[in-house]
Amino acid sequence: MKIVSKAFLSAMFSIAAVFAVTSCASTGKSNAAAKEVEAAVQIVEAEVSSISKYGNCSLNITGKDLEVAGIAAGDIVFAKVSSTEIKDIPVGTNYSDVDRGNTLLKIGSENVELAINMGNFAKTYSAEVGTKITLSLSGKGEYLQQYEIRQLKKSQNREDYASDEVFANFRNVTAGKIAAGKLYRSCNPVLTDARAPFAEKLAKDNGIKVVLNLADSTESAKEGLEKAPYYKSLADAGNVVFLNMGVSFSDQDFIEKLRTGLTFLAEHKEGPYLIHCNEGKDRAGFVVSILEAINGASLAEMTEDYMLSFENYFGVKKDTKQYELIGKTIIDQFKDINSGKDVSDKDVAKVTEDYLINTVKMTAEQIAAIKANLQ
Fold it and tell me: Is the dihedral of CA 29, 32, 34, 37 positive or negative?
């Protein structure tokens, strides 16, 4: 159930109203100022209606409810999740409207979500179905410039893209010492969307033999497998690992599944290998950059490869603020796995191997096997 109420629930806004009345008393505009403050501090009351496998919390309100309360994309809101207060949450329409690891109030076509870009909101804030949420506007239009820069739009029509490869975000990865024809990345060939048949055909044309499916479980892939005979033949032969990963790279569940996937790659000696999630962008971007790093790629090479997905899907152009904002994701990622310390081309390979050994719990022999398989 949703309620849009006035801000008498918030002492902060009550003080703001008193201040407005006092400061305007000498001008004879006290009543108008009080009404303006009162109108601006409506609180939207909601609760969590469902939680995705990624930890995004859908609320039992709509974008229209937020509009009535004066909240729109580009604004900043204050949220209370049970008794936990979260300040300065941008309002957007895509998860990438905020930097990796940041919280977002996402307005979708059918629902409103509280989410963390590449993180798990439900776990971070101990939210469950039924958890009470209150939202209020704290900065009208204060995020609008950032929001507009970050807007990403894609088409589902093949004719809007330059090639099948661009449409399917399918490409050979050759950063560092990775040999040509060894490692590929793409969108999901078994997602049952417009791009899947193209990814399936390209996987066949390039002779893919081993697949790391980061997005699906065996169950969720069933329908798509029936429409992707080549991919299904690989799965039936035991050459596809279904990892069903989330998007919070620091979660233990993600780390354990990463170990499973990379162990699978180490043990399957004959490529070519394909790594994909749904878009082949974020989870695939993380895993591929790990492989690039241990094979001697520079940060610039890894960033360029990561950003090629955004060029392919959304037409993001180099030498733009949008490209710069999104592209720093790779640098931030390696900084995260290095305990918050900066990385450089000189140490990124060692930082990554240390992460694989100490956090992911892989062996030096497994890492060596992966390198041998890709070089």
Answer: negative
